[in-house]
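Retro notes (design track)

What went well: tokenization of the new backbones is finally stable.
What didn't: we kept losing track of which sequence belonged to which structure.
Fix going forward: every design gets posted as structure first, then sequence, in one message. First example under the new rule, 210 residues:
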């Protein structure tokens, strides 16, 4: 992203630090900045009028947000909240637009990553609508597996019931019921804030069976 960024633009970035569970941007509010995550994890979610959360994505180092709203000064569609302590680079709208104008490399990067983001969001929306909860949980666990850890006997995946509930728009009770079924089949185990995958092939079979 910053490969060919002009110095006059780099000089305009400011680094902001946020504690865990801090809302950086509120849904329906306007912000005049483009943000790039330098460190930590953030949750991108939407809240219904009834107060129900729908998590659309978890962003990490190198991901950015605010691009859709800053172009046309639109209110934020989602809220942005830190999951861990985070450091975020931000640049004001005038300098962001100047960056787009000067740096073709950045413009192409923006187009490619936006297309990728829209693709993933469309796929997630389809899965949330068309697939049962058990498939989505199995799919989530499989996607969370680090390729370098596949050869390990047991694979550990960080786990948060409340966040899964937001991501899948399902009650924690429904999620617990499916996790219990997988545990009874000796496919997973649950330890504190982690799910231990004991049988990767068994998990794939559970996903394929739906």
């Amino acid at each position: 992203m910053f490969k060919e960024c002009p110095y006059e633009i780099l000089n305009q970035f400011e680094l902001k630090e946020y504690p865990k569970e801090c809302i950086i941007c509120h849904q329906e509010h306007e912000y005049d900045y483009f943000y790039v995550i330098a460190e930590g994890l953030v949750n991108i979610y939407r809240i219904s009028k009834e107060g129900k959360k729908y998590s659309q994505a978890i962003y990490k180092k190198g991901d950015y947000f605010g691009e859709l709203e800053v172009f046309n000064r639109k209110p934020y569609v989602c809220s942005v909240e830190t999951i861990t302590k985070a450091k975020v680079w931000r640049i004001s709208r005038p300098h962001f637009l100047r960056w787009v104008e000067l740096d073709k490399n950045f413009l192409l990067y923006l187009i490619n990553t936006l297309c990728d983001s829209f693709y993933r969001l469309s796929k997630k929306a389809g899965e949330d609508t068309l697939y049962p909860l058990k498939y989505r949980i199995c799919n989530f666990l499989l996607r969370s597996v680090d390729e370098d850890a596949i050869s390990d006997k047991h694979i550990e995946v960080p786990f948060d019931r409340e966040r899964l509930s937001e991501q899948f728009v399902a009650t924690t009770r429904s999620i617990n019921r499916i996790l219990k079924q997988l545990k009874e089949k000796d496919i997973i185990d649950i330890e504190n804030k982690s799910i231990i995958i004991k049988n990767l092939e068994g998990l794939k079979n559970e996903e394929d069976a739906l």
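Added context from the reviewer: The chain has eight helices and eleven strands.
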